[in-house]
């Protein structure tokens, strides 16, 4: 061992031996992450995952198609006669009042069968006017006869009631006399002056008198009831008669106005039957029209739109009123305008096919026309406002139930556990 350095010098070159004697400095230990830091990071990650699973919710939804529908019917305006549109008083979106002029239809054209169409219309209007007059006279005669009958019935019932009251008063006097005689006979029977059979006959007579009084009181009550019914019927009859005559007079007034205008101008004015907004004003100036042709449509005032969601039967099991619906209008791309909320307000009990709902669907599935109320009748975007229109198509998501992600993950296990626990025999 003592000769090892000398032997080493013979094994290596002098340069290698000299380099081995140089000072290389102190050795640096390799630093590894602390176990505490690793545990902290893992714990923080696990906590974050748990917070995410239990704090964030996932909403189950059903996607359906729908469209905007008015909650009241739209009034269709038809041409009253064959003719030509000579004037158009309204345009699309025009608000009209009841009775306001819409169109002017000219009747001045010849027919190969009956000559002047206007004259034929005048004749028809006159026939209708005469028919209304005859109907009014007939109605007034019937009403007068029925009213007279009712008045006579009331007079008879009053006489019957008066007679019944007299009979009741007379019978009440007979009852009092019979009661007094019965008491006297009772005393005589107890004293032995009359036999018990005589007293029993007097008692039976007293019972008959009371029975007769009860029968007369019942007849009086029945007469009073019949009199009240007849008086109420007379009051209702007068109101109904007045309403019938008023309605008939209104129809006659409108007919007379049409007749005057037709005779004066050979034209018929088409009036608005209800107040509202004119839409689908299809008739144009110079157009030939027929009574079966729709000239325009009127949306009544204060009418609102709702969403008709066509929910297939396969997706209708968990739908209930009050659920929220997210809407995306096809006319307003949701990438720009966003989504809108609605609330389910009515679910029908009967499903309909696509033909009954007038929707294009190739499947043979049935649909429930579910009603959903919308929050606004227009779309606001910045400073602009866009009105919604009937028939606009809608894509909708019905929000069914909301659970945390953890609940959705463990729900199958809980259901399976409950299912098998119910199958186990009870001990």
Strand content: 15-25%
Predict the CATH topology of the largest domain.
Helix Hairpins
* Discrete helix count: 8
Q: In CATH terms, what is the architecture of the largest domain? A: Orthogonal Bundle
Kindly report how far apart the N and C termini lie. 87 Å
Domain module count: 3
Radius of gyration: 49 Å
Count the E strands: 18
SSE class: alpha+beta
Oligomer: single chain
Which spans of ≥5 residues are poorly predicted at pLDDT below 50? Answer: none
- Give me the strand/helix succession: HHHEEEEEEEHHEEEEEEHEHEEEEH
Mean pLDDT: 77
Shape: flat
Amount of helix: 40-55%
Q: Mind telling me the CATH class of the largest domain? A: Mainly Alpha
Main sheet, how many strands, which sense, barrel? 6 strands, antiparallel, barrel
Q: Can you walk through the features of this model?
A:
The chain is of the alpha+beta class and 427 residues long. The chain has 3 domains: 119 residues, Efflux pump adaptor protein, beta barrel domain (Elongation Factor Tu (Ef-tu), domain 3), CATH 2.40.30; 66 residues, OB fold (Dihydrolipoamide Acetyltransferase, E2P) (Beta Barrel), CATH 2.40.50; 146 residues, Orthogonal Bundle (Helix Hairpins), CATH 1.10.287.1490. The chain contains 8 helices and 18 strands. Strands 1-12-15-14-13-18 form a 6-stranded antiparallel β-barrel. The chain has a 4-stranded antiparallel sheet with strand order 2-11-9-4, with no helix packed on it. Helix 4 packs antiparallel against helix 5. The longest helix is centred in the middle third of the chain and has 75 residues. The radius of gyration is 49 Å and the shape is flat. The mean pLDDT is 77.
